[in-house]
Amino acid sequence: xxxxxxxxxxxxxxxxxxxxxxxxxxxxxxxxxxxxxxxxxxxxxxxxxxxxxxxxxxxxxxxxxxxxxxxxxxxxxxxxxxxxxxxxxxxxxxxxxxxxxxxxxxxxxxxxxxxxxxxxxxxxxxxxxxxxxxxxxxxxxxxxxxxxxxxxxxxxxxxxxxxxxxxxxxxxxxxxxxxxxxxxxxxxxxxxxxxxxxx
Length: 199
Description:
By secondary structure, the protein is of the alpha+beta class. The protein contains five helices and seven strands; from the N terminus they run βααβββαβαβαβ. Helices cover 25% and strands 22% of the residues. The longest helix is centred in the last third of the chain and has 15 residues, at 128-142.
């Protein structure tokens, strides 16, 4: 009798709650990464607190989701989205559709905010972050969000380059002093713009 064919463990996305044990390595590694880049500004305890600032239910369906890319039995990348309700930072006039905020800066269209985009340090340069972004965009659109908003830090040029390369619009002047700006906001529309027709 011949042996059964070998099953190749292909990477697959898994939706998990924020408190699931498989999420802890992601948050721990993100805290170390940020602490390394922003050591003169934030302590690792402050970063851990920041990573846990949002309640778990914000990253749970139907308004949000946290996904991990699982390969070989462990998480190699991941990310999450939540409904953005707070006023946004950035120059909305740089948007492809500048009418998406009210006078306080709060979005007037359902907007998913991406958070916790992560690739395990042992699995970088494999295009996994792009896969995570595409998966989060797909799930956000299915959850009813036509627009995505996110911020990254001025000392994360790889992240900023990834967002630009995957179709995100910077809501800041890339030629400005990024350290002075602090948060670097981006947006992406997931639905085509249909201009109003004249009657």
